[in-house]
Amino acid sequence: MIIIGITGTLGAGKGTVVEYLVKRKGFAHFSVRGFLTEELRRRKLPVNRDTLTAVANELRAKNTPSYIIEKLYEQAAAVGKDCVIESIRTPGEIAALRNKPGFYLLAVDADPRVRYNRIRKRNSETDNVSFRTFVMNEEREMHSDNPNKQNLAECIRQADYTLLNNNSIEALNRHLAVILKTIYRKQNSQKPNDT
To answer: Could you give the residue ranges of the DSSP H alpha helices within 67-167?
Structure first.
């Protein structure tokens, strides 16, 4: 079983990478945002970037920095097939997954203006913001010394592979296909020989 963790900047194309892995490669998908959205609805709170971040930070502080990812990993392990976990945002989450067999971290990034234009097009409940707010939101999530808070810069730095997604979806998919071939080769070389 391969587990690909996805990290990256806002609007970089993490969802597009997930779509490729799910639709073209048959991966199961587990989402931090989905997990948190369920928690917010259970608490009868609005779903927006501020509440998603606040509840995520609260759950990590109350439990462990890797709490959410550990819950998603349990779900992934129960499925028992290649899966993708989206979106990893703290070094503690990475550390927890590094202890699991078959884990690879993939970072997705793109130019800030390209990313902002993308989020405006998708028009989700958390994306209806000005460019200034977009930049401020990202800065807030980019660095933190608190292990329970988001630190995207460090997560991106720790990635096994990075996709720069300033071009077409086709170009992104071609790059991703090359990365997957490398991952599968590594996995196959780590399997014990049948003798």
So the answer is: 67-79, 91-98, 112-122, 131-142, 152-157
Which residue, 2, 6, 30, 3, is CA-closest to 16? 6
Model confidence at 195, pLDDT cuts 50, 70, 90, reads very low
Higher pLDDT, 166 or 48: 166
Range of the domain at 120: 3-189
**Domain for residue 195, yes or no?**
no
How many structural domains comprise the chain? 1
What CA–CA distance (Å, rounded) separates 6 from 156? 9
Tell me what the pLDDT averaged over the chain comes to: 90
At 103, list the tokens: 């884990």
Tell me if 171 is assigned to some domain. yes
Measure the CA–CA gap between 154 and 162, rounded to whole angstroms.
13
Residue 184 lies inside a defined structural domain of this protein: yes
pLDDT tens digits, one per residue of 12-64: 999 999 999 999 999 999 999 999 999 999 999 999 888 998 999 899 999 99
User: Quick check: is 9 in a domain?
Assistant: yes
Stated pTM of the model: 0.87
Read off the CATH number of the domain in which 181 is found. Answer: 3.40.50.300
Answer for the pair 16, 172: CB distance below 8 angstroms, yes or no: yes
Residues in the chain: 195
Find all residues with CB under 8 Å of 127, minimum gap 6, and list them: 11, 119, 120
